[in-house]
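Example record for the data management plan.
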Amino acid sequence: MTTRIRAAIGLLLLSAMLATRAAADSDPCEFRIARQSLAQALMVFSEQSRRVVTASSTLLSGKTAAAIDGRMAPEDALAKLLQGSGLTFVKGPGGDLTIVAVQVTR
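Corresponding structural encoding:
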């Protein structure tokens, strides 16, 4: 097999793996997260969704997350946890989620 063919096969396999992960990332999960500090709620969310979530402790300080209970897509659950906090999330290329402040446009 030539180097070009091996590289092409490698890229196809990588693309298939990434597509499978992207589909799995949006698959509904069962969430049972009590009303608690947002920092704690995000740790529970991360465990239950098997997603990596990063956030600055400064952004989370003093914020409380509402309880969520039920089966839903991880991004929907995260949006519910962040609702009313002034925070949102961005999804990185590997599927990791980063909590950021909502940008106000004027």
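Summary line stored alongside the record: The domain at 28-101 is CATH 3.55.50.30 (Phage tail protein beta-alpha-beta fold).
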